[in-house]
# Entry
Amino acid sequence: MHIETIGLINRSKKGDTIAFGQLVLNYSDYVFSVVFRLVNNEPFAEDLVQETFIKAWRNIKLYDASRSRFTTWLFTIATRLTFDWMKAHKEWMSLDVELPVGSRVIYKESDELENQELGQMIRKACRSLSVQQKMVFVMRDLEDLTVEEVVAITGFSEKKIKDNLYVARKKVREQLGIYLNSEL
# Structure
């Protein structure tokens, strides 16, 4: 962890709202990217990111750097809030949402048209996944988190993660095959 981040966390623990505001600025786009990939809706993702940082502010004194990285702690808050939201709003999960111009969605690759099209196909393919499958797939395959990090964030067992990931990958491959064949 960067020395600057450690200082901001320590100042936040003492009630420094400006330091916490800087943490929000530093990490909100990254948290947004993960949450958006789960809910596939920009306004809902923004609301969940806001809830994440409100909860983080209320619990910043509980953060222990010896137990987890700050990003893991934030992802834990974000994904658990998102998981609850996804279970309560299953009807929204199947909607086909196009990204608006100027979207905040962050791609790890360049923002070339091909990558955006592939991202749209992956989001469509993820509609067939259960909430748990989608969470594990997004964190493991799209965010490149380790199985250990996914365990820490979700609280799922390693076996449950691997089982859900296996099924999710199979479903996504099948759906991508359907989309690619329909475009030929």
The first helix runs from residue 3 to 13. Residues 1-106 form a domain with the Rna Polymerase Sigma Factor; Chain: A fold (CATH 1.10.1740.10).
